[in-house]
Design goal:
Strand order of the largest sheet: 1-2-3-4-5
Number of strands: 5
Strand content: 35-45%
Low-confidence stretches: none
Largest sheet: 5 strands, antiparallel
Length: about 70
């Protein structure tokens, strides 16, 4: 099961193909090439990357947890 790398919540919902939303800390996660990309949803609906806050190891995912 997918666990949020930011808050460790397992309350993750699917919002699109390879796109997920964490209801624990309200960030969007997308999965591509075995890596998660994390984004904060801004008030205007735009996304701000949070990838620089995490190491590649923290963002690495094998896909089996989806």
């Amino acid at each position: 099961m997918l666990k949020c790398p930011n808050c460790s919540s397992k309350d993750i919902g699917k919002i699109g193909p390879e796109q997920y939303y964490c209801w624990g800390c309200f960030i969007e996660l997308s999965y591509k090439d075995e890596m998660l990309s994390l984004h904060q949803v801004e008030e205007d609906g735009s996304l701000s990357s949070l990838d620089d806050l995490f190491t590649d190891e923290e963002r690495k995912c094998d896909g089996a947890s989806f």
